[in-house]
Amino acid sequence: MSHQVKISEKMPWSFALYLLGLIILAISYWPSAVTAIYGPYIFKPIAQLLRFLFGRIPFSIGEITYIIIVILLIFSLLRWLFIKKNNFGRFQFWKQQLVHILNGLVVLFIVFELVWGLNYQKKDPSQDFDLKVPFKYTERQMDSLSLLLINKLNLTRTKLGNFDQKKLDFESILTKNEVEFAKNTQKWSFLKYLNSSVKMAIFPSWGDYIGYTAFYQPLTGEAIVRGDLPKLTMPFTMSHEIAHQLGYASEDQANFIAYVIGTESDDPLFNYSTQLQLFTYAQYAHLNFIAKRGDFEFYKQVVERNKKLLSPQVIADRKEIKNFFMQKRDLQIKGASEMYNQFLIWNKQAKGIDSYNDVLLWVLAYKSKKNP
């Protein structure tokens, strides 16, 4: 009798848990509800509170949190294996374990969706910016965009002059980023960024093995950026991560917010960092069109043409950035990129890692609006 009472006492909790999970799952297929309710009334206050709590701590709590989670998982696994050894073949034991695992997965799903995951299901910000974003770009558009960016890169690089990258530090770039977001808030109130919480990674070498330059930690609300990155990439990278903190989950939309911040800035460093990143995307997209039709002779011609058009200083800067990532390439754990690619697909980013390049669609729409 007492055993039946214990089971009945657990039932309301289990029922409520699974019901909440089903409600969240249903809402995830309703972008309008996610945008209207989840964004402003659930994610925004949670994220701002997390940034307020952890942003004052000078080091990354997010990385330490992941370490603790991994340790707890290993301890739980060892404990489970020990218990399993002593209960092997018992039906009741395996039934209980299955229930515990399912409950744990449901709790994980609910927490992840509430603190971050539902952002993937929001409506895109095209209406906020009054943009008509095309579904695809053409080879000609990517060639034209590449040439335009080459001209901008050469011009902006002359404005930077013989600046010393070593004098650029993490905190100064972050301060400028906060200023840039504040300036753009006057035009677009939804870009208002409160309670800054951007941290330098404690363990940047993890990125060598897992394959990241920065990431958003939804459990602590921190944007964690590798401090060893080439300084010219940092303004764009930080803007991208701050965009995640504001709820722009998809990579192309976070890239677009970073593009807006960099393009609208009066600081040539922010202009240049953005142009470097966009040129990489545009040139890759253009060359990909050529490679798909097997015209490798023309492929080489385009690469050589672009090199000749770029100034020696821009080429040197791009070489430095490329060398940094080339040195790290062989360290990456096999399958890490594919796991992240699958994670993005599960969260309804159909193109996975390739979705980063979709920022080019947003750029075309933004340019079209500014220069009709």
Question: Secondary structure elements and their pairing?
Answer:
Blueprint: H1 2-27, H2 31-54, H3 61-86, H4 91-115, H5 126-129, H6 139-160, H7 170-185, E1 198-200, H8 206-210, E2 214-217, E3 222-225, H9 234-245, H10 251-264, H11 268-292, H12 296-309, H13 312-329, H14 336-346, H15 359-370
Parallel strand pairs: 1-3
Antiparallel strand pairs: 2-3
Helix pairs in contact: 1-4, 6-11, 7-9, 9-10, 10-11, 10-15
Number of strands: 3
Strand content: under 5%
Q: How would you characterize the largest beta sheet?
A: 3 strands, mixed
What distance lies between the first and last C-alpha atoms, to the nearest angstrom? 77 Å
Number of domains: 2
Please identify the structural class as seen in this structure. mainly alpha
Identify the overall geometry. globular
The DSSP helix count reads 15
Spans with pLDDT under 50 lasting ≥5 residues?
Answer: 1-8
What percent of residues adopt helix (DSSP H or I)? 55-70%
Q: Work out the radius of gyration.
A: 24 Å
Instruction: Please tell me the overall pLDDT.
Output: 87
Helix and strand element order: HHHHHHHEHEEHHHHHHH
What strand line-up does the widest sheet have? 1-3-2
